[in-house]
Amino acid sequence: MSYRVSLRCVAVALLLAVLASSGPACAADTVAGIRLYAADCGKLDFKDMSFFSDSGEYDGRSGSIVVPCFIIRHPKGNLVWDTGLGDKLVGKPDAGQNPGVRMLVTQTLVEQLKSIGLAPADVTYVAFSHLHFDHTGNANLFASATWIINKADLAWALNVPPPIAVDVSTFSGYRAAKTQLIDGDYDVFGDGSVRILRAPGHTPGHQILELRLKKAGTVILSGDLYHLRESVQSHRLPVFNASRADTLASMDRVEKILATTKGRLVVQHDAGDFNSLPKFPAYLE
Description:
This protein is α/β, with parallel strands linked by helices. It has a single domain (about 30-275), classed as 4-Layer Sandwich (Metallo-beta-lactamase, Chain A). Helices cover about 25% and strands about 25% of the residues.
């Protein structure tokens, strides 16, 4: 073998070694601590917000709610909590529009994941506060993840015909995915840092997510236990909640947890709460 050929072989070997060490590892890098990312997964505009309170405060009022997705990075893997309206709606402001409701998605979850070095295949777990369409729109992206699903919510969502605001096609991937069916509180990574807590009422199997972060402390993602910040103190309940009594009991539990831990509540659909979180791709830790 000539000296020139030997150098070429060495160069090729070095290049392959660099690619092998930097390619997949970039996408699947582990993290030392826990990070909470809040991604923009859409917005809903309403001509009439009246159904967000069964006591009349919003009658005749127009308004909007944000639709976020949350990515939790943990040394043991990655969790996506709620999956938004769906990437398929980008550039289609009139797609699937109901009278008086406008759905708007301006950026894809896939691209936002990419900006932090992740692809859907890098997501270890996907879980849902509940199975309304604005929380399941991108669920089927995560075919290789373990789906953590509340048994009561799944049974409710699979009724025929489906309940209001449920689109079974958006989470049909659960049938082929690995699933973890739960009916109570659930410790996602087994160390108490990321826990799904039972909070029924909005739907029969509604849940919230409790995080224990090193710097930020306890943070609770509300799902749809509350829809707007002003609903927290006044306990305004949507007319379409499955159970008023269960919702109020869940609010009481969450508020006691927040008081005990001096925690922070993030009302997921409230624009002010969403904007108070670090702007993606920054994160809370």
